[in-house]
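Q: Give me a protein?
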Amino acid sequence: MKLSNFKFTLPKELIAKYPTHYRDESRMMVLHKDTGKIEHKLFKDLIDYFDKDDCFVFNDTKVFPARIYGKKEKTGAKIEVFLLRELNEQQKLWDVVVDPARKIRIGNKLYFGDDGSLVAEVIDNTTSRGRTLRFLYDGDHDEFKKLLYEYGQTPIPKYMERGAEPEDAERFQSIFAKNEGAVTVPAASIHFSRELMKRLEIKDCRFAFLTVHNSMGSYRDIDVEDLSKHKMESEQMFVNREACDIINRSQDMGKKICAVGTSILRAMETAVSTDNHIKEYEGWTNLFIFPPFKIHMPDALITNFNMPHSILLMMAAAFGGYEHVMEAYKVAVKERYRFGAYGDALLII
């Protein structure tokens, strides 16, 4: 598989800038992976495709306000800092991406807040774009985090071509988000409303929760044509015993296992054992899933319609079959489905 195999023309107006009014009323295309048959539904119709003891596997990561703007010392130049993850709590070290990167060097200080009360010093250039910042703050860690997040904004993607708004703090997050650490939302999960979850519960469907802290790795541009030469960034993930028991029970009963999002697909394929059961796991995954990767565990996948050349599209194609998924995308453009994190859903079953 080559990068160019995942090219398609996406009209700009099909990129969703805002979510639907109700979470479960996005459109949903249903792709039957064995036949290539396509159906057009609403997301709340999902319930019609699952039965008692079928298992939904969700990502309960929580997005934090990762985009923060500061000013460079002396020049006062505006610098965007995208917080990736905290490296050291005691020293207040953070792995970040800065923009414009060319203006920031080791030793530079950045000032945040209207009064510049929060200061950070650049102490390392880890990559051409990445930096390590040390925040110079004397208070305790909880106070520091509160201040940092107060200045931060919801990290909606740049392709939305707008700034974060108050509504995004709630909508760029699933209703079951719990464990903080993601810098972008697991988009498939935001279609689930409390009402839909209740209806699935009444139908005796099972819910299992894994934690995968979505990084920017799945959203980076791939710069090689040969996909086997692309190196994925690692994402931190946690699979506990309770989740394993719920998933494996449904598996042993011959019931459907539905991965809610590509981050869950990657996590399940990382934690699956040779006997096709999920095992406990705590660590990192840099698994890159693209055709003709053989999927071992989930029977169904919920994902959004994603960008051309994107890793998320490649994962969907590995799950649903390259030809079927690319045809579904062609239909999605023709039928004017909405693309991106706030876009419409694709159920591959």
